[in-house]
Automatic annotation (TrEMBL):
Family designation: Belongs to the major facilitator superfamily. Nitrate/nitrite porter (TC 2.A.1.8) family.
Pfam family, any one: MFS_1
Keyword Lipid biosynthesis among UniProt keywords: no
Biological process, per Gene Ontology: nitrate assimilation
Compartments it resides in: Cell membrane
GO molecular function: nitrate transmembrane transporter activity
Listed name of the protein: Nitrate transporter permease
Amino acid sequence: MSTIAFTLMFAVWLMFGILGIPIQKELGLSDQQLSWISALAVLNGSMWRLPAGILADRLGGRTITLFLLFATAIPAYLVSFANNYAMLLVLAFLVGFAGNLFSVGTAWDSAWYSKDRQGLALGVFGAGNVGASVTKFIGPPLIAATAGSTYILGIQGGWRLIPVIYAVLLVIVGILTWIIVPKPDRAAGASKPLSEMLAPLKDVRVWRFSLYYVAVFGAYVALSAWLPKYYVDNFGVSLTVAGLLTATFIFPASLLRPVGGWLSDRFGARKVMYFTFALMLLSSGILMMPNGFITVVHPDGGQSQHLHYQISLLWFVVLVFILGCAMGFGKAAVFKHIPEYFPDNVGSVGGLVGMLGGLGGFVLPPLFAATKTWSGFPSSTFFCIFILVAICAVWMHVTIVRMLHDKSPELAGTIDRPLEEARS
């Protein structure tokens, strides 16, 4: 039930990735204005993850999940009546409250599973990220089929019908959760003082894990909202096709999360993180290359063109798919670290990591728009991701090397000596 609720809430949280395109046309918004609609939803779905995780540890995940489901249904319904940009910004911010369910579910599920199964359990729960693709599938055909229609209570068709459907589903899932989930809940931090729950946040490892999560989750959230428009603007496809192509990124980035959790249980989260960052650097490094060519001006005034490059739609989709696969593995690996290093504070640590990761999803869409405006290259989106992942990979590797040196400093000299001398 926590996974079902999270899947629905994730769909609601990121629904503006598809709804934003018809909204932009109706209200005459610029790309920058449009990016702020999704960004504000992501902001509010991130900023409360720390307190939400702590509350789940203290009160139990069932109570907090029910509250979030019913509370989010109200602004979701009201989105259908938004008729200006300011009203839409406010409601998008309130709808974004849905994103905070992640840290609640992380603490909730960790309390119900043993250490040797937590990686898989959290991976299955985290696969609810696939909810980001729900609007990509149902949105475009529903918008096209119901445009111009009016239903009961003055509800209009087109893009305005989608948030109403989501509001009804939120209430239904809330009722089912209340009926099905055991009422005697597990609250791992019920007896702990707040200061003890927040103490691990002083550990630099928590902030390092948070940066990793910005790369594998924040970038995932940002691309889930950004890719439909990217496909429409740069490859000239319809909104329906753009939604389907975006799903080829969302599905692996979500459904491979349980696999990433299982691999982390079996081989260790650190190895999975190395694989994740390598795959992300490779795919984003190719995707960031701008279409075009270099013009060389010769001394006699003549010009010649060199290094022609243009990526086709097929190869773009394949590379984005690979990027999504890497993110799916990485999201599970990051959260495998948390119950291992901080078994008694999963709610607070997971809340902070989830909060900062989600805030990455808030910062990146406006950054994508700004770098595109500054450089003129749409592919600058992936340059931002490449730089972010490179920083994470370097920090992780340097940290691991230092840890190994601290554990076995005597090996450093052995490794540095010539092979023959070392053998003797």
